[in-house]
């Protein structure tokens, strides 16, 4: 059910001596120590070096399949049949798989998934996406012409963003981005020549986005840069928050409401003027096909003359990866009740119980606190670290949460993503962990985490 | 409602303004971006196809899209072995199916073993799956007669285009007279001009010599760079070998001369070698820039900075839709390499099916493996057909008065020169079109053949060309060539 939307934003190019301006900006945030050490430890384990654990559990990425969750059979059967149509000659694959593969192959030039496609994506698939959006948004119309499929949503983010960011020696163009925020977004913005204008999500209120804070952020940009865009993530990454909260545990029932739907419901003139780009991906949600790289952007109220240039920019990259496009089609048009593959497809990959378990455990251990995870597939608990630990971190030349994460990796084999990578309120520490993993794995993760944390807190008390 | 009113109208106390993003407020660099291969003529072709589907009567029943280097779209069959392994990787339950050969299963298992969660649906490392990079390095070593290749210098990418743009992003900087200048051939593959426009780099054109079979002349390179130094900082030299759109295959001597030139002028070399298997002409052979560089000795091989690009979209595979590719970087500053990793991580990772496919391309069935015979048969057939079509195309076009065609030594295209009557040129101007676009549009409307006008690739002032792919099946190609010949004669007559 969860879907992650990302918006990419650009960062300005500075004038680094020998390399492009991008580079100086990108060098700011990155926990190189942690990733290098993880690689090293994985190698050592392969070589048989003895450690308190047999393998590294990598929950630093939002990657369900990387976390051991099996892909959906329907998706993989259709893909296999599309790549190797000989499979359609037997009855081995279910009827609905064969039908879908036939339908998709009909839409591929030369009946091959190896052909280029139209720039925006295979028209049949793009149309399917517009139908999916309309259905999801209770009838709000969606037009295929406004949809572009790309190899991963980051790219579909970068194209429109590159249009609104102007690189000038006289001023910076700014994009409001949340704190904390998915790190690739900030990197994208900076890479493309813009600056990020942080607005802080209110942690104690379930990472609430407060309008007063948006206004404050906008004010802070005066004289510094020219703000042109607002980036929101719904559900949030890393926070997992949804914009509307209900009381206590009724958040478990909260539904995703798209920005586009709300915009439409607000009626003209706002619904006809606010320019909106919405992003989605086959990397998350039920389908979780990160490696296939399928994402899309829907553009609303964008000037038609500008749309022509968006088309041109996308066309220079030819087209999105065809397996990714197919994955999107299978996401927007899953098997229906009555189809042979329906029941298998709908086996829930992650239960509400799992979510509650994470919330429970993380809030029961001193030194941890965690806001409810309403969506998004990650938990972003807060670390309340003892002063001694903070000092030790400083000595080691690391941010406190980075220090914690390195120790967590070394001693328990758990790889998580330090909060520092996502930017956070000064003086706070967090880490992000992927919870879109198998139930057994999650239990193991929580066990290791609590055990390590208790020892760590004791050591530095 | 008039625009004016919108300015005054308030909703919840918030005044509504005009759009944030308009042509005036848009990043001005983007205005100069063009990509003719998917440009207006192709959009018209798509429209015509729609009209045909809706029952419109035209002098033809289908549009032949000879504008884009897409072999499968033109009917070329995928190589069986590649698709078998891709199917196995996509749906590993098929590993139990005895209809799949052992060597395909072996490779699928190896690839899956290298993927997170044993699945191609997991993200890979941003630089690409490690064992694939190792296989690519081994392939390069074998291809280049043993010259070592370090997997750490291999970056897998979403097609070669992705890697090319990434390198340009690293290289383009500075302002005013210090702005990076990038040398590219005229004619060129318009990804380069588009990327340079988007990045606000200075494009430095060096002209290939049409009269000498599109050869590259160092004197011309020197002229271009010397002139460019007056208004920018030339830092990069891009070369496409075999060439696109021209198909010329550089001689070993020429490659040496280019490397020497790059060293003298302190230029970063970008060698686009995606057509390296597509060499047809007698006496021509592919020489990789890296191989030649290393054979020139340490004075060059340890100093010249270079990136070579390859892809799964061309050669005998033609797997454009999978977006597989890589680049190998040579002598890149280690600090820059660290930054490069970060840059490629922004898009997370290249499509994993494309990475898997690349692994098969660099690791094909060996003579002692079950799929070898069929694989070699299919590969040879594809390349032989292309060679035959290259020869046929050159031959037919050269029989047409007003069309001159250089030999198609390699790649997948022909770029013949067309002589247009003055009246046609004038008519084009009236219509607000570039003359070769005018010509190609007429060809599209009258014969249903979609080509790309030479103006989309760059050409000497006053000359006109078109780029046509040699990909349609031989029988269809013969018909296409005939139709173009007839059209050209009609067109010439009409405007004489």
Write the layout of secondary structure elements.
The complex is a heterodimer of chains A (461) and B (496).
Chain A: H1 22-26, H2 32-46, E1 57-58, H3 73-83, H4 95-106, H5 123-136, E2 147-150, H6 153-164, E3 173-179, H7 183-191, E4 195-200, H8 211-220, E5 226-230, H9 259-265, H10 270-273, E6 276-281, E7 295-300, H11 304-316, H12 322-332, H13 342-345, H14 352-364, E8 368-369, E9 378-379, E10 382-383, H15 387-395, H16 400-412, E11 414-415, E12 417-418, E13 429-434, H17 439-459
Parallel strand pairs in A: 1-11, 3-4, 3-5
Antiparallel strand pairs in A: 2-7, 6-7, 8-10, 9-13, 10-13, 12-13
Helix pairs in contact in A: 2-16, 3-4, 5-12, 6-7, 6-11, 14-17, 15-16, 16-17
Chain B: H1 3-8, E1 10-11, E2 14-15, H2 40-53, E3 64-65, H3 80-90, H4 102-113, H5 130-143, E4 154-158, H6 159-171, E5 180-186, H7 191-199, E6 202-207, H8 218-228, E7 233-240, H9 252-264, E8 268-272, H10 289-295, H11 298-301, E9 306-311, E10 324-330, H12 334-345, H13 352-361, H14 372-397, E11 403-404, E12 413-414, E13 417-418, H15 422-430, H16 435-447, E14 449-450, E15 452-453, E16 466-469, H17 474-494
Parallel strand pairs in B: 3-14, 5-6, 5-7, 7-8, 8-9
Antiparallel strand pairs in B: 1-2, 4-10, 9-10, 11-13, 12-16, 15-16
Helix pairs in contact in B: 2-16, 3-4, 3-13, 5-13, 6-7, 14-17, 15-16, 16-17
């Amino acid at each position: 059910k969860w879907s992650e939307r990302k918006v990419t934003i650009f960062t300005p190019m500075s004038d680094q001596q020998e390399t492009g301006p991008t580079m100086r900006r990108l060098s700011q945030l990155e926990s190189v120590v942690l990733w290098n050490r993880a690689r090293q430890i994985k190698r050592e384990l392969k070589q048989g070096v003895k450690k308190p654990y047999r393998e590294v559990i990598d929950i630093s990425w939002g990657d369900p399949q990387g976390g051991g969750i099996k892909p959906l059979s329907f998706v993989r059967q259709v893909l296999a049949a599309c790549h190797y149509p000989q499979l359609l000659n037997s009855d081995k694959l279910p009827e609905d798989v064969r039908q879908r593969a036939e339908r998709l192959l009909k839409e591929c030039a030369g009946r091959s998934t190896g052909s280029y496609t139209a720039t925006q994506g295979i028209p049949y698939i793009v149309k399917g996406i517009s139908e999916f959006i309309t259905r999801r948004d209770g009838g709000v119309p969606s037009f295929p012409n406004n949809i572009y499929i790309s190899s991963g949503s980051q790219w579909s983010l970068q194209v429109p963003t590159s249009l609104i960011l102007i690189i000038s020696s006289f001023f910076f163009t700014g994009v409001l981005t949340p704190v904390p925020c998915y790190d690739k977004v900030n990197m994208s913005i900076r890479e493309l020549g813009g600056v990020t204008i942080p607005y802080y999500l209110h942690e104690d209120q379930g990472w609430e986005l407060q309008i007063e804070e948006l206004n404050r952020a906008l004010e802070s940009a005066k004289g510094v840069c020219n703000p042109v865009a607002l980036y929101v993530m719904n559900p949030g990454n890393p926070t997992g928050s949804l914009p509307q909260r209900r009381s206590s545990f009724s958040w478990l029932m909260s539904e995703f409401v798209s920005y586009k739907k709300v915009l439409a419901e607000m009626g003209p003139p706002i619904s006809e003027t606010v320019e909106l780009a919405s992003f989605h991906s086959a990397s998350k949600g039920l389908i979780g096909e990160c490696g296939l790289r399928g994402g899309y952007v829907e553009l609303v109220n964008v000037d038609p003359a500008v749309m022509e240039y968006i088309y041109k920019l996308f066309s220079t990259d030819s087209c999105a990866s065809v397996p990714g496009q197919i994955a999107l089609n299978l996401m927007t048009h899953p098997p229906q009740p009555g189809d042979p593959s329906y029941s298998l497809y709908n086996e829930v990959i992650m239960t509400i119980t799992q979510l509650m378990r994470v919330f429970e455990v993380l809030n029961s251990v001193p030194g941890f606190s965690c806001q409810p995870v309403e969506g998004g597939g990650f938990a972003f608990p807060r670390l309340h670290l003892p002063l001694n630990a903070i000092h030790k971190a400083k000595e080691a030349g690391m941010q406190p949460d980075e220090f914690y994460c390195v120790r967590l990796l070394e001693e328990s084999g758990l790889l998580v993503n330090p909060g520092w990578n996502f930017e956070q309120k000064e003086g706070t520490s967090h880490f992000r962990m992927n919870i879109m993993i198998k139930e057994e794995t999650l239990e193991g993760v929580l066990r290791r985490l609590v055990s390590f944390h208790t020892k760590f807190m004791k050591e530095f008390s | 409602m008039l625009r004016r009113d919108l300015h005054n109208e308030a909703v919840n106390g918030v005044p509504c303004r005009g759009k944030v993003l308009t042509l005036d407020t848009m990043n001005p660099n983007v205005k100069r971006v063009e990509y003719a291969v998917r440009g207006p003529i192709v959009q018209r072709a798509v429209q015509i196809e729609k009209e045909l589907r809706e029952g419109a009567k035209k002098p033809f029943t289908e549009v032949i899209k000879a504008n884009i280097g897409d072999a499968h779209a033109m009917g070329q069959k995928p190589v069986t072995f590649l698709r078998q392994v891709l199917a196995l990787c996509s749906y590993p339950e098929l590993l139990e199916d005895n209809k799949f050969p052992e060597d395909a299963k072996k490779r699928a298992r190896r690839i899956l073993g290298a993927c997170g969660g044993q699945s191609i649906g997991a993200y890979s490392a941003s630089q690409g799956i490690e064992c694939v990079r190792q296989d690519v390095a081994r392939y390069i070593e074998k291809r280049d007669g043993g010259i070592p290749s370090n997997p750490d210098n291999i970056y897998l990418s979403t097609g070669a285009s992705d890697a090319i743009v990434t390198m340009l992003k690293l290289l383009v900087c500075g302002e005013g007279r210090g702005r990076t200048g990038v040398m590219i051939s005229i004619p060129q593959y318009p990804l380069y001009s588009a990327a340079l426009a988007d990045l606000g780099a200075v494009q430095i054109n060096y002209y290939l010599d049409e009269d000498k079979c599109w050869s590259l002349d160092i004197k011309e390179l020197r002229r271009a760079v010397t002139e460019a130094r007056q208004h920018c900082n030339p830092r990069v030299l891009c070369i496409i070998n075999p060439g696109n759109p021209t198909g010329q295959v550089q001689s070993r001597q020429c490659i040496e001369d280019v490397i020497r030139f790059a060293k003298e002028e302190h230029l970063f070399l970008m060698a686009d070698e995606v057509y390296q298997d597509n060499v047809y002409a007698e006496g021509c052979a592919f020489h990789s820039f890296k191989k030649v560089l290393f054979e020139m000795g340490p004075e060059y091989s340890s100093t010249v900075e270079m990136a070579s690009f390859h892809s799964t979209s061309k050669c005998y595979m033609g797997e454009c839709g999978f977006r597989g590719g890589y680049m190998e970087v040579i002598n890149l500053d280690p600090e820059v390499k660290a930054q490069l990793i970060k840059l490629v991580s922004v898009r997370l990772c290249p499509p994993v099916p494309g990475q898997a496919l690349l692994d098969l391309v660099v690791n094909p069935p060996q003579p002692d493996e079950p799929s070898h015979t069929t694989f070699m048969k299919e590969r040879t057939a594809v390349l032989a057909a292309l060679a035959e079509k290259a020869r046929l195309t050159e031959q037919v076009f050269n029989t047409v008065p007003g069309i001159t065609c250089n030999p198609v030594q390699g790649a997948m295209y022909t770029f013949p020169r067309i002589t247009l009557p003055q009246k046609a040129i004038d008519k084009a101007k009236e219509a607000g079109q570039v003359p070769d676009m005018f010509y190609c549009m007429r060809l599209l409307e009258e014969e249903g053949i979609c080509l790309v006008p030479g103006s989309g690739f760059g050409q000497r002032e006053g000359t006109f060309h078109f780029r046509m792919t040699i990909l349609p099946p031989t029988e269809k190609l013969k018909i296409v060539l005939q139709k173009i010949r007839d059209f050209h004669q009609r067109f010439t007559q009409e405007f004489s």
